[in-house]
Amino acid sequence: VAAYGAIEARQWTEKAAEAGCQAVMLLPPTAYRADEAAVMAHYREVAQVGLPIVAYNNPFDTKVDLTPALLGKLHSEGLIVAVKEFSGDVRRGYEIAEQTPGLDLLVGADDVLLELLQAGAVGWIAGYPNAFPQSCVELYRERSVDLYRLLHPLLRWDSKTEFVQAIKLSMDVVGRYGGPCRPPRQPLAAEAVAIIGEATERALAAGCK
């Protein structure tokens, strides 16, 4: 759930509840750099709906950093049950576990999967399983370093601006329709197409599915 303000975000969450959703993932305010008080008020407003909330920490795009300390405050008030951690700082996994052991940590970026699982993550909100579902499930369950190394040239695209285009391209290469992106996302540059295509072909040749 994302919206310009807390009231609209609550309204979307109410619609999610009416549709039978069991939980929502909620971004902080995204139209401006909200301070801690505004972030707390935002989550309090949406929490009134009664659905469990997974906080989404994406400081790159929202310009709001849900630090371990702030997550602890949100959790202590019963406003969130988990966090999708997309900061890329794997040290935060340990900080969250130490400061707020009851808060579930979810891997939010494909290229730090094993690192955050090692730190105690209990789930993965993923991108590249759209292209390689079986291999990504194997990676999650078995925590294979060799498979991680093989897929990492692709997984790291999940942390780039062009992540949607990259995943769709890999889907096309492996025979799963990815197709074009909705505007205003633009097609990948030729160099990126070549890099992603080659990495996808290498993964296919190695037996990834």
Detailed description of the structure:
The chain is 49% helix and 9% strand. By secondary structure, it is an alpha/beta fold. It has two domains: 125 residues, Aldolase class I (TIM Barrel, Alpha-Beta Barrel); 65 residues, no CATH class. Strands 1-2-3-4-5 form a five-stranded parallel beta sheet. Helix 6 links the parallel strand 4 and strand 5. Helix 4 runs parallel beside helix 5 and helix 8 packs antiparallel against helix 10. It is globular. The protein starts with 5 loop residues before the first helix and ends with a helix. The mean pLDDT is 98.
Note the main sheet.
5 strands, parallel
In total, the number of strands is: 5
- Examine the secondary-structure arrangement and name the CATH architecture of the largest domain: Alpha-Beta Barrel
Described by the principal axes of the CA atoms, the overall outline is: globular
Order of helices and strands: HEHEHHEHEHEHHHH
Report the span from N to C terminus.
31 Å
Task: State the helicity in percent bands.
Answer: 40-55%
Model regions low in confidence, pLDDT < 50 over at least 5 residues: none
CATH superfamily of the largest domain: Aldolase class I
The portion of residues forming beta strands comes to 5-15%
**What's the mean pLDDT score?**
98
Instruction: Assign the structural class, choosing from mainly alpha, mainly beta, alpha/beta, alpha+beta, or little secondary structure.
Output: alpha/beta
Q: Which assembly state applies to the chains in this document?
A: single chain
Strand order of the largest sheet: 1-2-3-4-5
CATH class of the largest domain: Alpha Beta
CATH level 3 topology of the largest domain: TIM Barrel
**What's the tally of helices?**
10
Backbone CA Rg = 18 Å
Count of distinct structural domains: 2
